[in-house]
């Protein structure tokens, strides 16, 4: 250690080795993020307190909390919040639940395991746009393979098809989203499962523990932190999620698939109401923040308890 | 005991096959639809196997209208985004991994926070900024917007990779008087090449797949990327469904192929990013 001290002394003389060194590496990226994300965000916060039309963006009239109050009072926004809640909860529960089952399956021994593990990532690798295109085609009222399958099962689908049916559109979008998300959670959980020590599993078996008991006592404690993190990540991703819903239904029919982000975009670009759109966006960010901070607090509490 | 174990394996294999069926079917269905003749398609029965005599549809699809132009635009946008994010993200990750400095916590929070921002929210102010600076309706503008969204993810992935290299490796070189910049380029970057490749793949395909910015910022047809072009087919009546599926497949396959090829590193990187983010 004493040697290090001497060497440090020499290092300090090097012109770049000052306390300013890290900033040379840091400043370009942070300046960039500031210009392209933080400054627009601040502008958006400002816009949320103004009445501004997309057609006339220079003319902002300060209206205080009017946009927020009007948004919260409108019935359509209550529906939007409900749809968003359902969307986020189902996406998180579905992708984590199915992802965990798939991870356990792929962690067990069977022939062709490597290929299966590779192929399962396909939905997550496929572009959202392509997923929307194929989903719309498969659900096409007359020729769609899934529509035919559904009518074969006796599900009554209206003239316009699944995506035009207020009862079926949201389930269709949920299934598509979960289809795309669960492989990611599965693969992340699979890597967590691989850090479960084999000896512990064997020891549990030797002690006569059944599968369920082994899972609860040995596996679950190891993967629990990862499950918490991935659930928070999935929640944030689902709140942000835009193109799949937009391209499949544009929030319709009757607003039954209109999430916060869809509402925000159509307020801005269909209704040209930038102030209202900004206010809706702020609600989305606050919800994301609550999820992240809440997730942290729960994780910390769990750590202290165990 | 033995028969029970064998039964277990059979059961697992069946479960895996069902799983893979669910996972692969939509892509397979794109392929089958592209390779189905019109008579078959509108005959009322469902054809589950591709008709390989229709294989020419892929060449026809590429020759159609703007398809090649779209793909080229997407390639330029994705490559540009990859270059910008790596150029900014590698130094940022290095600073975060190897130095302690004032404001480090703020930088960490900023990176975490930007991951919560919906693109649909920032599209409005960026639209205004771009209009004033002449970046609207330009490929460089789109590259700048896309890069800002991938940069935090890339930085977190690369920070995780740098953290995995023992400090002694580069400290020794620094103590011998090497400047931090050359330590980064000569010693650390070569050691984490796989993670950099993974980050590059993520940056490339995030931009390749990006839709919201592209559809809002670009209104010249000749500058449109493939994501906007393919999305434009939805609800449109003039193009045959076979062509639509063929183009969508041509747009999808590079992304899927690359993720399969690089998935070990991509998933390792994304997990590191996810865990830290």
UniProtKB/TrEMBL annotation, chain A:
It comes from the Bacteria. The chain crosses the membrane at residues 20-39, 85-106, 118-139, 168-193, 213-239, 274-299. It is a multi-pass membrane protein. Residues 81-295 form the ABC transmembrane type-1 domain. It comes from Herbiconiux aconitum. This is Sugar ABC transporter permease. The lineage of its organism: Bacteria, Bacillati, Actinomycetota, Actinomycetes, Micrococcales. Belongs to the binding-protein-dependent transport system permease family. Its main location: membrane. The keyword Membrane applies. Pfam families: BPD_transp_1. The keyword Transmembrane helix applies. Keywords: Cell membrane, Membrane, Transmembrane, Transmembrane helix, Transport.
From TrEMBL, chain B:
Keywords: Cell membrane, Membrane, Transmembrane, Transmembrane helix, Transport. It is found in: Cell membrane. It is a multi-pass membrane protein. Its main location: membrane. InterPro entries: BP-dep_ABC_trans_perm (IPR050901), MetI-like (IPR000515), MetI-like_sf (IPR035906). Gene3D superfamilies: MetI-like. Pfam families: BPD_transp_1. The chain crosses the membrane at residues 9-31, 70-94, 106-130, 142-162, 183-208, 241-262. Residues 71-262 form the ABC transmembrane type-1 domain. SUPFAM superfamilies: MetI-like. It comes from the Bacteria. PANTHER family: INNER MEMBRANE ABC TRANSPORTER PERMEASE PROTEIN YCJP, MALTOSE TRANSPORT SYSTEM PERMEASE-RELATED. Belongs to the binding-protein-dependent transport system permease family. This is Carbohydrate ABC transporter permease.
